[in-house]
């Protein structure tokens, strides 16, 4: 335990209690787990430090439980949309079974299986709050209140994610609002739910809890839902939510909250509009970096800030090149799959540097997270679904590209018409006219998430439009929309 790396001077002269690893990962969500698995597979002794449940936000309070809540109503709606199948649908959702299904996908909020997996790949686990204590040095405060001191030969990786942020509004404390955690783990269905925020979390949770029986009012401060997407996406999702019984109010800015009685309803005050009375209120209004209490100041960084990283995920502004970040904490692309992608890139870079190998960090190189900037895929699991990858038309124009948007009515594709009676949807491809490659694609409609990976390959692979003509879509599937988009582009 006295094998102390050069530069690990944060512990003072007595190194007798320092446990040394090749790689220390702080944060055991999907990015941390993936990074640790890959560095260990390459022969580097690796430890994960986690203060909560191993598996992180995605496993217990985000991706898995939210999609488990959303899938049953989506399946029910899909059956009702097919002639001959709708006759077999009797009644509504079994709410208790849906919540039990959700609980199972969240592993009952126990991480035993995750711990077993980590052991199976020979990565060590330390429970507690980890923080930097100088270059390559980490102190862990254990649940029992003790302290462990760790040192890294090659790298420390911060994979501590993000946290829901609540606005500073009058009455917030007594209102006891839900964040995304309560929204995905609640054990009862509120009779009335107010959702504040028109982004992905807001629209998904409005859809889920309306399907489970809540009377839901969605309050979006801006003029549309999903404002970072193509404009038609928010319009169609708002239409779908309204059709399901959600009251959608755009241009609605919340000015304060009141809960006069501890167990009574909450009054949500809306500037220039009628107040909303609800049993619970969910704020889905943004995220903040999980960098508090990480000791960033001991290495010259500002506590509470997002981590700025280069494309190899090395944290910028830290001498020695030993500190890395992956996942939400980098603010590059705040999605689980992108965090795992970043972790793979970071692990490859750590291993290469540990072996004194040259990095392939040019765009699309082995050690460059280029997709974070050019080919980020995302799905919103409402009804209709929305799926996109790469740049919107406006983003492409802002980037200085000469582009053209090519649109097509998805409902006119044979596969979509077979998928659901009266299918409504839309597809858009954004074409870089100078290079004749796709730089973005967006789909809205039932089941469009399954179209997304082909679009991601086209964008990330910079496949020429002329070559895409030779990628023949099977008939009759919704993938035929690719042919229709190309025909529309050629005119």
Automatic annotation (TrEMBL):
Residue sites binding NAD(+) per the record: 197-204, 286
FAD/NAD(P)-binding domain location: 21-342
S-S bridge residues: 58-63
Binding site residues for FAD: 67, 130, 160-162, 328, 334-337
SUPFAM superfamilies named in the record: FAD/NAD(P)-binding domain (SSF51905), FAD/NAD-linked reductases, dimerisation (C-terminal) domain (SSF55424)
Cofactors named for this entry: FAD
Full protein name: Dihydrolipoamide dehydrogenase
UniProt organism field: Streptomyces zhaozhouensis
Cofactor comment text: Binds 1 FAD per subunit.
UniProt-listed GO biological process terms: 2-oxoglutarate metabolic process
Domain Pyridine nucleotide-disulphide oxidoreductase dimerisation: 376-482
Residues spanning the signal sequence: none
Family according to the record: Belongs to the class-I pyridine nucleotide-disulfide oxidoreductase family.
GO molecular function, one term: dihydrolipoyl dehydrogenase (NADH) activity
Keyword annotations from UniProtKB, A to Z: FAD, Flavoprotein, NAD, Nucleotide-binding
């Amino acid at each position: 335990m006295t094998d102390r790396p050069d530069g690990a001077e944060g512990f003072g002269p007595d190194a007798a209690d320092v446990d040394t690893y090749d790689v220390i990962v702080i944060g055991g969500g999907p990015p941390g787990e993936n990074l640790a698995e890959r560095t260990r597979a390459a022969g580097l002794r690796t430890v994960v430090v986690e203060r909560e449940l191993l598996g992180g936000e995605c496993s217990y309070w985000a991706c898995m439980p939210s999609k488990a809540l959303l899938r049953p109503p989506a399946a029910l709606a899909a059956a009702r949309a097919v002639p001959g199948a709708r006759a077999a649908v009797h009644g509504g959702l079994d709410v208790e079974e849906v919540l039990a299904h959700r609980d199972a996908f969240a592993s009952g909020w126990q991480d035993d299986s995750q711990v077993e997996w980590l052991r199976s790949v020979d990565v060590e686990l330390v429970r507690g709050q980890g923080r930097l204590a100088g270059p390559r040095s980490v102190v862990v405060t254990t649940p029992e209140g003790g302290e462990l001191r760790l040192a890294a030969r090659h790298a420390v990786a911060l994979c501590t994610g993000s946290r829901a942020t609540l606005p500073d509004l009058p009455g917030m404390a007594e209102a006891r609002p839900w964040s995304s955690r309560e929204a995905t783990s609640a054990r009862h269905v509120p009779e009335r739910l107010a959702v504040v925020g028109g982004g992905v979390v807001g629209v998904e949770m409005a859809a889920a809890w309306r399907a489970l029986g809540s009377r839901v009012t969605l309050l979006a401060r801006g003029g549309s839902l999903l404002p970072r997407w193509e404009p038609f996406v928010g319009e169609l999702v708002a239409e779908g939510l309204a059709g399901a019984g959600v009251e959608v109010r755009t241009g609605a800015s919340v000015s304060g909250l009141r809960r006069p009685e501890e167990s009574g309803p909450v009054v949500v005050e809306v500037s220039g509009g009628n107040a909303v009375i609800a049993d619970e209120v969910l704020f889905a209004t943004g995220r903040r970096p999980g960098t508090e209490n990480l000791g960033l100041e001991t290495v010259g960084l500002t506590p509470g800030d997002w981590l700025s990283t280069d494309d190899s995920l090395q944290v910028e502004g830290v001498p020695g090149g030993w500190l890395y970040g992956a996942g939400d904490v980098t603010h590059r692309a705040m999605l689980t799959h992108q965090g795992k992608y970043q972790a793979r890139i970071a692990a490859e870079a750590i291993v290469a540097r540990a072996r004194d190998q040259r990095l392939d960090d040019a765009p699309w190189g082995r050690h460059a997270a280029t997709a974070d900037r050019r080919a980020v895929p995302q799905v919103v699991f409402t009804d209709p679904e929305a799926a996109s990858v790469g740049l919107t038309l406006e983003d492409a124009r802002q980037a200085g590209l000469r582009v053209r948007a090519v649109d097509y009515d998805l409902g006119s594709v044979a596969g979509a018409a077979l998928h659901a009676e009266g299918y409504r949807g839309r597809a858009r491809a954004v074409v870089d006219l100078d290079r004749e490659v796709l730089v973005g694609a967006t789909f809205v409609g039932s089941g469009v998430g399954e179209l997304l990976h082909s679009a991601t390959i086209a964008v990330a692979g910079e496949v020429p439009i002329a070559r895409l003509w030779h990628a023949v879509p099977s008939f009759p599937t919704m993938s035929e929309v690719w042919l229709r988009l190309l025909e529309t582009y050629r005119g």
